[in-house]
Write a structure and sequence with these properties.
heterodimer, A: mainly alpha, MetI-like fold, 12 helices, 66% helix, 0% strand, disordered N terminus, B: alpha/beta, eight-stranded mixed β-sheet, 24 helices, 26 strands, 33% helix, disordered C terminus
Amino acid sequence: MSKIDDLDEGLSGEGGDNNGIIGSNSGGEAHASGSQLKLIVQTFLENKLAIVGIALVIIAVLFCFVGPLFYHTNQVTTSYNITQAPGHGHPLGTDQNGYDVLGRLMVGGQSSLEIGFSVAIIATIIGVLYGAIAGFIGGVVDTIMMRVVDTLLSIPTLLLLIFLAAVFRPTLTLLIIVISAVSWLSPARLVRGEALTLRVRDYVKAVRVMGGGSRRIILRHIVPNAIGTIVVNATFQIADAILVMATLSYLGLGLPPPAANWGSMLSDGVNYVYDGYWWLIYPAGIAIILTVVAFNLIGDAIRDSLEVRLQKR
Amino acid sequence: MPLLEIDDLYTNIRLKQGEVKAVGGVSISINAGETVGLVGESGCGKTMTGMSIMRLLPASGYIASGKVKLDGRDLVAISEEEMRAVRGNDIGMIFQDPMTSLNPCLTIGSQIAEAVALHRKVKKAKAMERAIEVLNLVGMPKPQERINDYPHQLSGGLRQRVMIAMALSCEPKLLIADEPTTALDVTIQAQILELLDSLKDQLGMAMLLITHDMGVIAGRADRVVVMYAGKVVEQASTEEIFASTNHPYTEALLASIPKMDGSVARLYSIPGIPPDLSNPPTGCRFADRCRLASDQCRDNEPPLVTNDQNHSFACFHPVGIEANHVKITLKVEAEEIQRIEHADRKPLMVLEHVSKEFDITKGAILQRKAGTLKAVSDLSLTIYDGETIGIVGESGCGKSTTGSMMVALEKPTSGKVLFNGEDLFGHKPKELRLIRSNLQLMFQDPYASLDPRMSVGTIIREPLDINKIGTSQEREKKVISLLSEVGLSSRAVERYPHEFSGGQRQRIGLARALALNPKLIVADEPVSALDVSIRSQVLNLMKDLQRTHGLTYVVISHDLSVVRFLADRIGVMYLGKLVEIGTGYDIYENPAHPYTAALLSAVPEPEPEREKTKVRKIIKGELPSAINPPSGCRFRTRCERATDLCAKEEPPMTSFGALHQAACHFPLISKVEIRTGAAAF
């Protein structure tokens, strides 16, 4: 039974009117009980793949950031104990520099995850604000702002990144900035599309009638209502950033040694592919795949659970 | 034997959890050549009944039990392939929205021909001939030329004609019309209803007319079936059902519709909302909302009994036999007139020769001007403190734009909007913000006007936050008091809009509008998205709030009975022009402008006697384009009285009474030269 029935108190000031009391019944439209957030979380948790995704992300974070506290390895100085097969003090063997692969996977994952999260946050904030402003103002401003986005999108991302990586000496901060600089374009487009439809909604008109300004409309009404698109896009952005980072590192344009990273590990391992040193390729490759898949699963589940809210209304 | 016999039909719709029992045991029979009206509120299962006949249920829906017999053949039992031969051939169907029911990629000719080719197994050229023939039949002007048009090139009324042509192309024995005119303007609605009526007689087919509009039923149906919560509650001939209603639901439904004659001061409203059909109550489904319900009604389900007048109803306490009728408070006409004339006539808002034109542009960056749309032209109007002004007209006549200018959302292209004697648009943005809190808007769509991401408390507090009124605690208190004023409990604060019904949302919208203690509220179609029984609650509430807050309303609506109920004075707009203004009596009983008269005669009223004998003055044609409006009087292209003078000279506003003015060269009543100095409009 819905809770709608206890919301009505009847019209006030209707003395002697036999039909004054409204809502003394039960039922009505099938509404969810409780807040929206509860409903969203509930639907999200009903999705089994989402749980898998969440579990994988938690495992990845624990593995990369908590793992090194318990599993101490030397990841700074090289040794002669190179390309040793798994076993004997090295569960996943050692690489061509004599570093322990399992330990390197943990350290390398740190920079991958850091870049993933940072890029997603920065690119989303810039993209959302840019897109919301363009969509909300519309007209000539929108046209110019979106042509800028189109122009930037037409430059091949990899070419730009290779160029930048070749000119500057890559650091973690620089990589984050560079990947963000090419990643904000897609949320900008998506949010602009949302803003175009949201700005003509009656509740936006209502804010104007109340005397509210554009800043309030964008931040309080347009952005929160586009949050579904934004969050989903952000999760995909994490996965994308990890992939871009891996690609760059694979091409040898990532962080210079001794800094480690899943992509560069994979790139180094490829040199030994014909020697049968599988432990140099599979661990890094599987780590990348699992992390990317996990974030994609979460993104899908969030999108589905946010849509349920609309269905049930 | 009846043409169509529905016997104890049950249709369910599967949900993620449980099932909605959309149709719960419906039996209806339709004889050849008969029009049966199926009425009820949204969600009562009337559309699902129609869809079950056609076996066009949504993917999750299925017919649980029951028979649908067409000419003795059970449609529930036959195969899908056999059913396909029945659809379109034996039973035709018209849907509500002609835009979405037509394929935008195909010409209308080929869409009609498709249906013919499918069922008649004829060549394409032959099918096209038939298409032209039926288009001619449904009154499409110049069908040979229009046959190659695409749906977007046609107006709403013409599109509905195409839909009808498609449905009739194979001369079905039964036509199911599901809300055929709900998306159309009253004048077009009258044309389409007239057309359906004459086609029915011409082709000798039966019709199932599904609608929520009692007025449409009254004039067109031979027999009426009233549905409530998936069940038939009453069934009788049209005259019988209006004259001697037996079921309390039917009675309440009729009592909650405002009358066109303006005699009602306060509407009856059915308390509560319809039951949840995934878990229907035992006993009578209307019991919870019924004023006559007893314990017997809650425990046992009343059977559908038929009396000697072939009038059947499902109720233990039928109205008119054991119980009294509902009391409706009638307006005291003399008091009303006194109120208008002796009111403190202090002008609150004055519109002086206001015009609004929208540039139509082409190109993305350069935005070259391709033309101007004259939404409102030279409109002058004075709104007095404490009164309610109604503005009526067809869609596209500029009434909503006028409303937007009154609340300073749109700046007029020329002319002035004075509020309390000051020009609204002569202020700096900051000052305008202060004045604006006096002018609020009430929206049409209660689902779109509340931000779904905000709790109700935040929504109502937002205007106070924006204007920095009071401390945090004071704002909280104000929110609670506003909620109780609109009849909602304080528990609503924490909840989100999607947890409320349409009527409750509309009340939340009203509470938000009242937060700033406005002087003037512009209500743009305040109840047109609501069901009849909910509508009367909101209308009564609007009247109450006007009294307690000393509000001035501008009510914009296409529904003439709603405006008559709320408004003291009514303005009629046509194509951006105010053509007539006066009191309710002046406009409805004594119209001067031919357009007003035609508009009134097009409105279907829930009174079968009047509807069946009414001499309809149906307006020909469609609303001309506002980009190139006709010269002189803009109504001349559709007016019977138009002469050369109307094309040459624009008629000025002339007085027909103290408060009555109209702009016409050849008015329906004689001009009165009294109190011209009063400048009453």
